[in-house]
Amino acid sequence: QRGGIVETTVLLGGYKGPIIGRGGADVVLAFEPLEALRAILALGKASRKSWVITNTHPIRPITVSLKLGEYPDLERALAAVEERVARLVKLDALALAEEAGSPLSLNMVMLGALAETGLLPFPVEGLEEAIAGFSAEIAEVNLRAFRLGREALTRALMMAETE
Predict the structure, then answer these.
(1) Residue ranges of the domains in the chain?
(2) Other Cβ atoms closer than 10 A to 82
(3) Model pLDDT for residues 94-126, shown as the tens digit of each residue
(4) Running DSSP on this structure, what letter comes out for residue 72?
(5) Are 26 and 49 in contact (CB under 8 A)?
(6) Which residues contact 42 (CB under 8 A, 6 or more apart)?
(7) How far apart are the first and last CA of the chain?
(8) Which strands, in side-by-side order, build the sheet including 87-91?
(9) Among 98, 116, 112, residue whose Cα is nearest residue 143
(10) Residues 53, 40: contact at Cβ < 8 Å?
């Protein structure tokens, strides 16, 4: 949704209702850095056991574009997220999507990163098969983006281990 907030919940397993309770998210995918902060602070979705994977490319709200407000300091915002979760992974998913061939494939970058965590209860190959089912041109870009997301997650985890 352009200019607005979109929240989607995916529940895998034997859940009784459609809503994640406070601290109940195993993983939060944030397509914008402040959405990671919002999911943690305002909505309380994550806990110290949760992973957060966030795109680091900010999408400035209209109020900021119109100079009616300021975009918060990213480092401080992400530090606030990091201190409240088990693991924070920061990816420039937009740059990876563009490298794959289309900024519209940002969602595939994020899905690839999620798949690489090993937290999903099904094999990565099943996701690749589903992505490959689209028209050839779309599938090619989306598969490239998906794989770039997987590689980026692996690199981010390796870098975190050396810190």
Answers:
(1) 20-91, 93-163
(2) 15
(3) 999 999 999 999 999 999 999 999 999 999 999
(4) P
(5) yes
(6) none
(7) 37
(8) 27-30, 51-55, 87-91
(9) 112
(10) no
User: Which long-range contacts does 100-107 make (Cβ < 8 Å, 24+ apart)?
Assistant: 100/141, 100/142, 100/144, 100/145, 100/148, 101/140, 101/141, 101/144, 101/145, 102/141, 102/145, 105/141, 105/142, 105/144, 105/145, 106/31, 106/55, 106/145, 107/31
Q: Place 69 in a pLDDT band, splitting at 50, 70 and 90.
A: confident
Cα dihedral across residues 17, 19, 23, 25: positive or negative: positive
Token reading at 54 = 């966030």
pTM of the predicted protein model: 0.89
For residue 117, how many other CB atoms are within 10 A of its CB? 16
The residue type at 11: L
- pLDDT: which is higher, 5 or 80: 80
